[in-house]
Amino acid sequence: MINNAAIMNEARWELMIDINVKSLIWGTEMAASHMRKDKGGRGGRIINIISALGLTTNFPSPIYSATKHAVRAYTSSLAQEPTLPQQGIEYALIAPDIVDTPLIRALDNSRMHHHDQLKDFIRDKQMEPHIVAEGLLQLLHLDNINGAVLSVEKERKTFRHVENVDDGPTFDPSKSAAGYV
Ligand SMILES: NC(=O)C1=CN([C@@H]2O[C@H](COP(=O)(O)OP(=O)(O)OC[C@H]3O[C@@H](n4cnc5c(N)ncnc54)[C@H](O)[C@@H]3O)[C@@H](O)[C@H]2O)C=CC1
Ligand SMILES: CCCCC/C=C\C=C\C(=O)C/C=C\C/C=C\CCCC(=O)O
């Protein structure tokens, strides 16, 4: 199950918290209750989409960033639950850099502060959505993804364990199935 829906709109920040955080928690809780092996389900994986802005801080979109940090903390905490092996559930995060989607195309200074000054930065950094999809497929091929954080940038994909997202070593998923640390 992938929780992907979100908005980026600093002017409608309460709605943004509702969608980006509260709805994601509802989705996660509902999915887990159906998937849990210890409750009659078949187990499974729940992948929550954050952002590079869920791993760092910035001035143009403080509330959007806060929603993504909240999801990171929530998912990271769930991944530490000691009964996960009995539940048969794994939790992971994907943190894309800027992606060329309607979310980006709708941005202006009401949705993100200083957007005018950041247009060139966004244009240079943004990647096509298929790069994120490729990262998702690489993640899904790993044996155990619980606690994994996949950062997707235009030129590289980086797998880390959620406890090490700030400075942890990375690994090449083509060489190791469970090697993220
Ligand atoms: N586009 C970007 O640069 C980046 C996007 N992300 C994240 O990737 C995810 C997907 O974003 P994009 O595809 O870029 O945005 P998008 O605006 O193209 O797609 C977002 C989707 O969420 C859905 N959605 C929004 N509010 C909803 C609601 N109340 N109920 C049901 N569905 C709702 C929309 O219908 C839409 O299909 C989001 O979590 C976003 O924060 C992360 C990093 C960068
Ligand atoms: C600096 C803010 C740029 C905002 C770009 C617009 C939309 C971003 C949507 C996201 O979800 C965020 C994706 C990427 C953020 C870009 C840069 C983060 C810098 C991270 C770092 O410190 O290296």
TrEMBL record:
Pfam families: adh_short. Gene3D superfamilies: NAD(P)-binding Rossmann-like Domain. Keywords: Oxidoreductase. The keyword Oxidoreductase applies. InterPro entries: NAD(P)-bd_dom_sf, Sc_DH/Rdtase_CS, SDR_fam. It is an enzyme of class 1 (oxidoreductase). It catalyses: (15S)-hydroxy-(5Z,8Z,11Z,13E)-eicosatetraenoate + NAD(+) = 15-oxo-(5Z,8Z,11Z,13E)-eicosatetraenoate + NADH + H(+); prostaglandin A1 + NAD(+) = 15-oxo-prostaglandin A1 + NADH + H(+); resolvin D1 + NAD(+) = 8-oxoresolvin D1 + NADH + H(+); resolvin D2 + NAD(+) = 16-oxoresolvin D2 + NADH + H(+). Its EC number is 1.1.1.141, 1.1.1.232. Catalyzes the NAD-dependent dehydrogenation (oxidation) of a broad array of hydroxylated polyunsaturated fatty acids (mainly eicosanoids and docosanoids, including prostaglandins, lipoxins and resolvins), yielding their corresponding keto (oxo) metabolites. Decreases the levels of the pro-proliferative prostaglandins such as prostaglandin E2 (whose activity is increased in cancer because of an increase in the expression of cyclooxygenase 2) and generates oxo-fatty acid products that can profoundly influence cell function by abrogating pro-inflammatory cytokine expression. Belongs to the short-chain dehydrogenases/reductases (SDR) family. This is 15-hydroxyprostaglandin dehydrogenase [NAD(+)]. It comes from Aplysia californica. The gene is LOC106013868.
